[in-house]
Design a protein that fits this description.
With 268 residues, the protein is α+β, with helices and mostly antiparallel strands. Helix content is 18%, strand content 42%. The protein contains five helices and 13 strands. It has helices spanning 2-24, 29-41, 138-142, 254-257, 261-264; strands at 46-56, 62-73, 80-88, 96-101, 108-113, 118-121, 149-156, 160-167, 177-183, 189-195, 201-213, 216-226, 232-242. A 13-stranded antiparallel sheet has the order 6-5-4-3-2-1-13-12-11-10-9-8-7, with helices on one face. A hairpin with a 5-residue loop joins strand 9 and strand 10. The termini are far apart.
Length: 268
């Protein structure tokens, strides 16, 4: 009798854990993509990080950039602001890139070039062009709206949700499709591969390191590879902090020429 009861208990427990595992897997692809977008770009109410960027061309020649990113959310998954101020090298020092992400229209993007004392608006058509000479695009820095694409959940593995996406408006994209591997535990996209009209993968974005900062899983190292030229760019993040109470008026055109030094300065 005791043996039978133990067997029944074991079977019931096994069934419970199987059902729990199955229940843990998400099936709504739009919800998966929405949560991955929040995990990637909306952690905390706001945030600050310092970035070292290493650009390597197809011949192995390197360039470096250093900059600080300030970010403020108006609402989770909604309107959002980014401010990127460059500090090194000398030829890009005090260059500023600023974005206001809009939900119902194109994002507003500005680039301030201190050598010319020029503020330039970046059009929607330029969002997938090189970010300061790197293999990252302007759109990579602030993110692509999930609603711009159609998504299909292609596969669910032990570790990832694999999602295939195609642009709704092909005239604004340099790709015909892309595949994303989203980590099931923290919902950060760990790899993205972009394919051309022939289905050939020509660009890859990879997360190389993730750490928990203030309870938020955070990308600390990422890489974009141009598979045609052989070049790649690595971004390394440091001094990351969340919920630092950034003021909304910091993200104004006035701040392009007059940088908010107190917020850009590394906290002691």
């Amino acid at each position: 009798m005791h043996s039978l009861l133990r067997k029944m208990a074991a079977t019931t427990l096994s069934a419970f854990f199987s059902l729990t595992t199955l229940a843990a897997d998400m099936t709504d692809v739009d919800d998966i993509v929405r949560q991955a977008n929040i995990a990637s770009y909306y952690q905390g109410n706001d945030g600050r990080s310092e970035v070292r960027m290493t650009i390597t061309d197809g011949q192995g020649r390197e360039q470096q950039r250093q900059f600080t990113i300030l970010r403020l959310n108006e609402e989770e998954g909604g309107r959002q602001h980014f401010y990127v101020a460059f500090s090194r090298p000398a030829d890009v020092r005090d260059t500023v890139f600023m974005v206001t992400k809009n939900i119902d229209r194109d994002d507003d993007r500005w680039l301030y070039l201190p050598g010319l004392d020029l503020v330039r608006r970046i059009s929607a058509g330029d969002k997938r062009t090189s970010f300061v000479g790197s293999h990252f695009f302007y759109e990579d820095v602030s993110g692509r709206q999930p609603t711009e694409d159609n998504h299909v959940l292609t596969e669910t593995t032990a570790e990832h949700y694999v999602v295939d996406s195609t642009p709704k408006d092909t005239s604004t994209a340099d790709f015909s499709s892309y595949r994303v591997w989203i980590n099931k535990t923290h919902l950060l996209p760990e790899k993205i591969e972009y394919a051309d009209a022939q289905g050939e993968v020509y660009r890859r974005v990879e997360v190389l390191a993730v750490e928990e900062v203030q309870g938020f899983p955070t990308v600390m190292r990422s890489q974009v590879s141009d598979l045609r030229s052989g070049g790649h760019t690595v971004m390394e993040f440091g001094f990351v902090s969340y919920d630092i109470s950034l003021p909304e008026d910091l993200f104004s055109e006035r701040s392009l020429r007059r940088q908010p030094r107190d917020w850009l300065r590394r906290p002691e």
